[in-house]
């Protein structure tokens, strides 16, 4: 890698990192090339030459958020046995990420969903695709838990994913908006109670 290429990649990484911080604190819809130029000390033309349009920047920020989410939530869970242990691990890792993010800002997808729920356009589509991928991953893990006999055979995967996701949204709301430090513990208790209603008879303690 040449020195110029390395410098360009470092500059790009600096821009994306600043954009992620700004999006987390203010919302992805508040990103602007001009404001990023001020925050990074890079000229606006320099920012544009590396990230292109605002739409391209927003997509790049969400791509990086997806990468970190997979690295922090889903990848650690892959080391856990398939089935209910993996599902529990995914939820616990997700809850940990919420706690880590709370002091710095909101989840880009949760905040973005409320910000763009009634607006049409590429950014809304991209946000919806990201949420759909997360829920699809949860659904896959639920199905594996059913196949392993950990969850009842009559479990409705879509319903369980909806309920888990609703708990996640609820804890994000209480942590961020109500500043309730007890919300993660409440969510854990609610999740444990929820799963107990889906466990197969062989899994009931």
TrEMBL record:
Occurrences of domain HTH tetR-type (ranges): 9-69
Top-level lineage group: Bacteria
Keywords, in A-Z order: DNA-binding, Transcription, Transcription regulation
PROSITE patterns: HTH_TETR_2
Protein's recorded name: TetR/AcrR family transcriptional regulator
Residue ranges for the DNA-binding region feature of this UniProt entry: 32-51
Pfam family, one: TetR_C_13
Organism of origin: Pseudoduganella albidiflava
């Amino acid at each position: 890698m040449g020195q110029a290429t390395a410098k360009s990649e470092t500059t790009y990484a600096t821009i994306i990192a600043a954009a992620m911080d700004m999006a987390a604190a203010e919302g992805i819809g508040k990103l602007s090339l001009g404001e990023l130029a001020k925050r990074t000390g890079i000229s606006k033309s320099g920012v544009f030459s590396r990230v292109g349009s605002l739409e391209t920047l927003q997509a790049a920020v969400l791509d990086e958020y997806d990468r970190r989410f997979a690295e922090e939530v889903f990848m650690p869970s892959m080391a856990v046995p398939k089935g209910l242990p993996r599902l529990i691990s995914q939820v616990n890792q997700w809850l940990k990420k919420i706690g880590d993010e709370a002091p710095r800002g909101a989840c880009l997808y949760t905040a973005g969903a409320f910000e763009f729920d009634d607006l049409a356009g590429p950014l809304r589509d991209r946000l919806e695709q990201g949420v759909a991928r997360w829920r699809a991953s949860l659904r896959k893990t639920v199905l594996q838990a059913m196949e392993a006999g950990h969850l009842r055979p009559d479990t409705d995967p879509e319903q369980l994913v909806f309920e888990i996701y609703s708990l996640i949204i609820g804890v994000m709301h209480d942590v961020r908006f109500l500043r309730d430090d007890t919300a993660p513990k409440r969510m854990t208790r609610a999740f444990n109670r929820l799963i107990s209603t889906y466990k197969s008879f062989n899994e009931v303690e």
